[in-house]
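Data card: per-record layout.
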Amino acid sequence: LRPLWPHLALALLPCTALGCSACCMGVNQHLLWLARGKALSSSAFSSESSELVDSLVDESWWFQTRSEIIRKRCSRELRGVTLWDVGCGTGFVSEHVVDKQHGAIGIEPSLAGAQASVARGLSVFCGTLESLVLPSGSIHAFGLFDVLEHLVDRTALLGEIRRVMAPDASLLVTLPAHSFLWSSIDVLSSHQLRYTRRSATKE
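The structure for this 203-residue chain is written out next.
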Protein backbone atom coordinates (compact mmCIF):
# COMPACT_ATOMS: atom_id res chain seq x y z
CA LEU A 1 0.00 0.00 0.00
CA ARG A 2 2.82 2.43 0.73
CA PRO A 3 4.10 2.63 -2.90
CA LEU A 4 0.59 3.49 -4.14
CA TRP A 5 -0.21 6.13 -1.56
CA PRO A 6 3.02 7.63 -0.16
CA HIS A 7 1.14 10.75 0.94
CA LEU A 8 -1.12 8.77 3.26
CA ALA A 9 -0.72 9.50 6.97
CA LEU A 10 -1.05 6.02 8.44
CA ALA A 11 -0.09 4.46 11.72
CA LEU A 12 0.65 0.81 10.89
CA LEU A 13 -0.10 -1.32 13.91
CA PRO A 14 -0.35 -5.08 14.43
CA CYS A 15 -3.81 -5.94 15.70
CA THR A 16 -2.37 -7.38 18.92
CA ALA A 17 -1.08 -3.93 19.81
CA LEU A 18 -4.69 -2.77 19.98
CA GLY A 19 -5.87 -5.61 22.16
CA CYS A 20 -7.29 -7.66 19.29
CA SER A 21 -7.44 -11.41 19.69
CA ALA A 22 -6.22 -12.21 16.16
CA CYS A 23 -2.72 -13.59 15.73
CA CYS A 24 -0.39 -11.61 13.45
CA MET A 25 1.99 -14.28 12.17
CA GLY A 26 3.27 -15.43 8.78
CA VAL A 27 3.39 -13.61 5.47
CA ASN A 28 -0.34 -12.93 5.32
CA GLN A 29 -0.51 -10.72 8.38
CA HIS A 30 -3.86 -9.13 9.08
CA LEU A 31 -3.24 -5.58 10.14
CA LEU A 32 -5.19 -2.57 11.25
CA TRP A 33 -4.28 0.78 9.74
CA LEU A 34 -5.44 3.92 11.51
CA ALA A 35 -6.26 6.43 8.79
CA ARG A 36 -4.94 9.85 9.76
CA GLY A 37 -3.80 8.30 13.01
CA LYS A 38 -7.16 8.09 14.77
CA ALA A 39 -10.48 6.27 14.89
CA LEU A 40 -13.82 8.02 14.98
CA SER A 41 -15.87 7.96 18.17
CA SER A 42 -19.17 8.86 16.47
CA SER A 43 -19.85 5.70 14.50
CA ALA A 44 -22.33 2.86 14.41
CA PHE A 45 -20.22 0.44 16.45
CA SER A 46 -19.33 0.89 20.08
CA SER A 47 -17.52 -1.95 21.82
CA GLU A 48 -20.84 -3.15 23.20
CA SER A 49 -22.72 -3.05 19.88
CA SER A 50 -19.79 -4.67 18.10
CA GLU A 51 -19.85 -7.58 20.52
CA LEU A 52 -23.64 -7.84 20.19
CA VAL A 53 -23.53 -7.96 16.39
CA ASP A 54 -20.70 -10.47 16.40
CA SER A 55 -22.67 -12.71 18.74
CA LEU A 56 -25.65 -12.70 16.35
CA VAL A 57 -24.28 -12.84 12.81
CA ASP A 58 -22.74 -16.30 12.83
CA GLU A 59 -26.02 -17.95 13.84
CA SER A 60 -28.54 -15.58 12.27
CA TRP A 61 -30.48 -16.93 9.28
CA TRP A 62 -30.91 -13.38 7.95
CA PHE A 63 -27.20 -12.49 8.11
CA GLN A 64 -26.15 -15.86 6.70
CA THR A 65 -28.59 -15.68 3.77
CA ARG A 66 -27.70 -12.07 2.98
CA SER A 67 -23.98 -12.83 3.00
CA GLU A 68 -24.45 -15.84 0.73
CA ILE A 69 -26.36 -13.73 -1.79
CA ILE A 70 -23.58 -11.12 -1.72
CA ARG A 71 -20.90 -13.81 -2.03
CA LYS A 72 -22.52 -15.30 -5.15
CA ARG A 73 -22.83 -11.87 -6.75
CA CYS A 74 -19.20 -11.08 -6.00
CA SER A 75 -18.08 -14.41 -7.42
CA ARG A 76 -19.81 -13.57 -10.71
CA GLU A 77 -18.67 -9.96 -11.01
CA LEU A 78 -15.38 -9.56 -9.16
CA ARG A 79 -13.07 -12.26 -10.48
CA GLY A 80 -9.50 -11.26 -9.64
CA VAL A 81 -10.62 -7.91 -8.16
CA THR A 82 -10.24 -6.77 -4.56
CA LEU A 83 -13.46 -5.55 -2.94
CA TRP A 84 -13.20 -2.42 -0.79
CA ASP A 85 -15.87 -2.94 1.86
CA VAL A 86 -16.81 0.56 3.08
CA GLY A 87 -18.36 0.59 6.54
CA CYS A 88 -17.46 -3.07 6.96
CA GLY A 89 -18.58 -3.16 10.59
CA THR A 90 -17.37 -6.36 12.21
CA GLY A 91 -16.23 -7.82 8.88
CA PHE A 92 -18.89 -10.51 8.58
CA VAL A 93 -19.66 -9.88 4.90
CA SER A 94 -16.04 -9.51 3.81
CA GLU A 95 -15.14 -12.72 5.58
CA HIS A 96 -17.68 -14.56 3.40
CA VAL A 97 -16.73 -12.75 0.19
CA VAL A 98 -12.99 -13.49 0.34
CA ASP A 99 -11.94 -16.55 -1.67
CA LYS A 100 -9.23 -17.63 -4.11
CA GLN A 101 -10.64 -15.37 -6.84
CA HIS A 102 -10.68 -12.07 -4.99
CA GLY A 103 -9.80 -10.48 -1.68
CA ALA A 104 -11.31 -7.72 0.44
CA ILE A 105 -10.09 -4.65 2.29
CA GLY A 106 -12.30 -3.19 5.00
CA ILE A 107 -12.85 0.46 5.85
CA GLU A 108 -14.54 1.01 9.20
CA PRO A 109 -14.71 4.27 11.21
CA SER A 110 -15.13 2.64 14.62
CA LEU A 111 -12.17 1.07 16.37
CA ALA A 112 -14.39 -1.63 17.90
CA GLY A 113 -15.76 -2.68 14.52
CA ALA A 114 -12.31 -2.57 12.91
CA GLN A 115 -10.82 -4.73 15.65
CA ALA A 116 -13.63 -7.27 15.23
CA SER A 117 -12.92 -7.36 11.49
CA VAL A 118 -9.23 -8.02 12.11
CA ALA A 119 -10.20 -10.84 14.46
CA ARG A 120 -12.03 -12.38 11.48
CA GLY A 121 -8.80 -12.35 9.49
CA LEU A 122 -9.33 -9.17 7.46
CA SER A 123 -7.07 -6.21 6.75
CA VAL A 124 -8.82 -2.99 7.70
CA PHE A 125 -8.41 0.77 7.54
CA CYS A 126 -9.89 2.32 10.68
CA GLY A 127 -11.29 5.61 9.43
CA THR A 128 -13.50 6.93 6.65
CA LEU A 129 -13.04 6.51 2.91
CA GLU A 130 -12.58 10.27 2.61
CA SER A 131 -9.72 10.24 5.13
CA LEU A 132 -7.68 7.86 2.96
CA VAL A 133 -7.42 10.33 0.05
CA LEU A 134 -7.02 7.54 -2.50
CA PRO A 135 -5.91 8.34 -6.07
CA SER A 136 -8.72 9.17 -8.50
CA GLY A 137 -9.94 6.27 -10.61
CA SER A 138 -7.92 3.72 -8.65
CA ILE A 139 -10.48 1.30 -7.16
CA HIS A 140 -12.25 -1.38 -9.20
CA ALA A 141 -14.85 -2.64 -6.70
CA PHE A 142 -16.69 -1.10 -3.77
CA GLY A 143 -19.21 -2.65 -1.40
CA LEU A 144 -21.71 -0.66 0.65
CA PHE A 145 -23.59 -3.29 2.58
CA ASP A 146 -26.31 -1.68 4.70
CA VAL A 147 -24.26 1.48 5.18
CA LEU A 148 -26.00 4.43 3.52
CA GLU A 149 -29.13 4.26 5.65
CA HIS A 150 -27.03 5.08 8.74
CA LEU A 151 -25.78 8.41 7.35
CA VAL A 152 -27.58 11.73 7.74
CA ASP A 153 -25.50 13.22 4.92
CA ARG A 154 -24.51 10.69 2.27
CA THR A 155 -23.20 13.24 -0.22
CA ALA A 156 -19.55 13.22 0.87
CA LEU A 157 -19.20 9.44 0.86
CA LEU A 158 -20.94 8.94 -2.48
CA GLY A 159 -18.96 11.78 -4.02
CA GLU A 160 -15.68 10.24 -2.88
CA ILE A 161 -16.69 6.84 -4.23
CA ARG A 162 -17.41 8.42 -7.61
CA ARG A 163 -14.02 10.12 -7.57
CA VAL A 164 -11.91 7.07 -6.78
CA MET A 165 -13.86 4.49 -8.82
CA ALA A 166 -12.16 3.25 -11.97
CA PRO A 167 -14.19 3.64 -15.20
CA ASP A 168 -14.99 -0.10 -15.25
CA ALA A 169 -15.55 -0.39 -11.50
CA SER A 170 -18.35 -2.30 -9.78
CA LEU A 171 -20.42 -0.87 -6.92
CA LEU A 172 -22.38 -3.42 -4.88
CA VAL A 173 -24.97 -1.96 -2.51
CA THR A 174 -27.53 -3.40 -0.11
CA LEU A 175 -30.19 -1.18 1.46
CA PRO A 176 -33.29 -1.57 3.64
CA ALA A 177 -36.36 -1.31 1.41
CA HIS A 178 -39.66 0.59 1.65
CA SER A 179 -40.72 3.12 4.28
CA PHE A 180 -43.85 1.11 5.12
CA LEU A 181 -41.57 -1.56 6.64
CA TRP A 182 -40.11 0.95 9.11
CA SER A 183 -40.04 -0.55 12.61
CA SER A 184 -38.39 -0.36 16.00
CA ILE A 185 -35.45 -2.26 14.50
CA ASP A 186 -34.72 0.74 12.27
CA VAL A 187 -34.75 3.01 15.31
CA LEU A 188 -32.52 0.64 17.27
CA SER A 189 -30.12 0.45 14.30
CA SER A 190 -29.98 4.28 13.97
CA HIS A 191 -31.37 4.17 10.43
CA GLN A 192 -32.16 7.53 8.84
CA LEU A 193 -34.33 6.20 6.01
CA ARG A 194 -35.44 3.24 3.92
CA TYR A 195 -35.15 3.12 0.14
CA THR A 196 -37.13 2.32 -2.96
CA ARG A 197 -35.46 1.30 -6.23
CA ARG A 198 -36.19 4.79 -7.56
CA SER A 199 -34.77 6.70 -4.59
CA ALA A 200 -31.66 4.51 -4.50
CA THR A 201 -31.03 5.01 -8.22
CA LYS A 202 -31.53 8.77 -7.93
CA GLU A 203 -29.09 9.03 -5.03
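Known properties of this structure: Residues 1-29, 36-42 have pLDDT under 50 and may be disordered. Helices lie at 47-57, 61-77, 92-97, 111-119, 129-132, 155-164, 184-188, 197-202.

See the next section for split statistics.
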